[in-house]
Amino acid sequence: MTLRDITDRISKAAPAANSAAGAVSLIAVSKTQPNERVQGVLEEGHRIFGENKVQEAAGKWPAFREQFDGVKLHLIGPLQTNKARQAMELADAIHTLDRPKLANTLARLAQELGRCPDLFVQVNTGEEDQKAGVMPDKADAFIAECLALDLPVKGLMCIPPVNEEASLHFALLAKIAARNGLRDLSMGMSSDFEKAIALGATHVRVGSAIFGERDAV
Ligand SMILES: *Cc1c(COP(=O)(O)O)cnc(C)c1O
Questions:
Q1: What is the pLDDT of residue 14?
Q2: Residue 177 needs a FRET pair 20 to 30 A away by CA distance; which of 19, 30, 148, 187 works?
Q3: How far is the CA of 205 from the centre of ligand 1 (A)?
Q4: pLDDT of residue 213
Q5: Pocket around ligand 1: residues whose beta carbon is below 6 Å from it?
């Protein structure tokens, strides 16, 4: 697969499902990929990237940003509060707002910095113990709490359980977003982004299908 294959598949998947064609952002997930591969995708003109670790993002994106204009960086991995400031300084969007302590920290830092990345609330749609995210039955209250803190919550994010039909989780996420008046849906990865788009994804997070398999970390 190449970047072009993926963007073609997205545009084929999009018009049928998504009334606003072109409304799907492709986040190229570059975590653990060698810099040459990331550079190659930048040279092809792509500008939206995702990283799951603040440290790793801080190690490579400032240099790429000096070389390439218009880079948008999305943080898609679990965020510790002690890394929140660095995350806010680096990222254009954070997809993993999932608990009150983090919401309070981001709100305080937003005041201090005078800006805040776009935020997505992560929902643990599969109610998995090992996974981050607010539980589905707590999502409405948590979203309200974040909005009351004036946080720029744009949408919701989920990572479906590996052994379940992803569409059920995408549909649940879309339903929670709709009843909370949120527009953006960050859902769908290499193996299922077309299904996610069919259910209203506005942001798909695709790594290995663009860059190739990651080295095990
Ligand atoms: C790694 C990662 C992805 C991309 O996964 P692929 O299967 O390589 O497309 C998407 N979302 C999150 C949160 C990730 O950590």
A1: 75
A2: 30
A3: 6
A4: 83
A5: 29, 31, 52, 76-77, 159, 189-190, 205-209
Question: What's the pTM?
Answer: 0.95
**Which segments within the chain are labelled E, that is strand?**
25-29, 48-51, 72-75, 93-97, 118-122, 153-157, 184-186, 203-206
Joined tokens for residue 151: 């946080």
Q: And the tokens for 132?
A: 């981050």
Count of Cβ atoms closer than 10 Å to residue 24 Cβ:
23
CB 14 within 8 A of CB 24: yes
Of the candidates 196, 186, 177, the residue with the CA atom closest to the CA atom of residue 27: 186
**Sequence letter at residue 176:** I
Query: Do residues 151 and 103 touch, judged by C-beta distance below 8 A?
Result: yes
**How many C-beta neighbours within 10 Å does residue 101 have?**
10
Which of 37, 52, 191 maximizes ligand 1 atoms within 8 Å of its Cβ, making it the mutation to test the pocket?
52
**What are the structural domains of the chain?**
3-10+24-211 (3.20.20.10)
Contact between 28 and 3 under an 8 Å Cβ cutoff? The reply is: yes
Convert the pLDDT of each residue in 168-204 to its tens digit.
999 999 999 999 999 999 999 999 999 999 999 999 9
Q: pLDDT band at 20, cuts 50/70/90?
A: low
